[in-house]
Amino acid sequence: FYSRPDNPLFIPESGRDEANAKNIFYAVAKYNVIGYHMFGVDDVAAENGSVIPGTEDIRDSFRLVSAALPLVLRYRKQGKIHAVVQEDYVIDQLIDFGDYLGLVLFDDAFKDYHHRRAENMYGHKKKSGRGLVIHAGANEFYVLGGGFRLLLHKKREYNDMMTVADAAGHIKTRDINYISVEEGYFDKNETWIAVRRRNGDESEYGIWAEPDAGVVRAIVE
Predict the structure, then answer these.
(1) Which residues pair with 61 in a beta bridge?
(2) Where does 7-147 show beta strands of DSSP type E?
(3) Helix intervals (H) in the chain
(4) Helix (H, G, I), strand (E, B), or coil: what is residue 140?
(5) Would you call 116 exposed, middle or buried from its count of C-beta atoms within 10 A (0-12, 13-18, 19+)?
(6) Alpha-carbon distance 220 to 38, whole Å?
(7) Cα torsion at 39, 44, 49, 54 (round to 10°)?
(8) Neighbours of 193 (CB within 10 A)
(9) 146, β-bridge pairs
(10) Which residues contact 174 (CB under 8 A, 6 or more apart)?
(11) pLDDT in tens, 168-215
């Protein structure tokens, strides 16, 4: 990608492969893209209206970004939108949120009984993680995407001499309290509407993201 203040990034054509299903999140978070389009988008749908096998990832990525557009437009260029992308041989990713340190884990920890490690159970290859984490307020986070979970720690809980890398070694399970973790959407007035609240078991291993969960809003202490 290339982007500069006097020439905003616009992508008129992109493919339907896994790379573009991940690159769209880079474009939104790092390069403030003003448009991201798929070449041959009509070829994604079969005659019966179903999605052609092999194009589900790019469909899900476009849907997720669309669902988060109110947040993207509100917080773009403020350093609050972070891309989560699992490149080859990567198992985790650190994100600095100021008062919080975030560790993204690309693993297969427990989510809920609707997402019971289906890829491993049936011998399918686990898909690469990708998505966005948006730090909307002091203790408010929005998470969307697939194939990852986010663990948060308050930096002040660590010794001043401890580096970020050292601290990450301690972030393997949840040790921060949630006020709420909700799945939901934004209505036409850009008001957050919660449709499902995750219980303690579903949040014990972090704030996880899967495409069918949509946008997840977490309020932490």
Answers:
(1) none
(2) 10-11, 35-36, 81-85, 92-96, 100-105, 130-137, 140-146
(3) 18-31, 56-67, 69-75, 118-121, 164-168, 200-203
(4) strand
(5) exposed
(6) 37
(7) -170
(8) 10
(9) 130
(10) 151, 203, 204, 205, 206
(11) 555 666 678 999 999 999 999 999 999 999 999 999 889 999 999 999
Amino acid symbol at 143: V
Tell me the C-alpha distance between 122 and 107, whole Å.
16
Alpha carbons 55 and 53: distance in angstroms, whole number: 6
Q: Are 168 and 162 in contact (CB under 8 A)?
A: no
Parallel, antiparallel or unpaired: strands 81-85 and 92-96: unpaired
Give tens-digit pLDDT for 138-154: 999 999 999 999 999 88
Q: Residue 99 pLDDT more than 70?
A: yes
Question: Residue 13: pLDDT above 90?
Answer: no
The values of phi and psi at residue 198, to 5°, are -75, 140
Q: Tell me the pTM.
A: 0.87
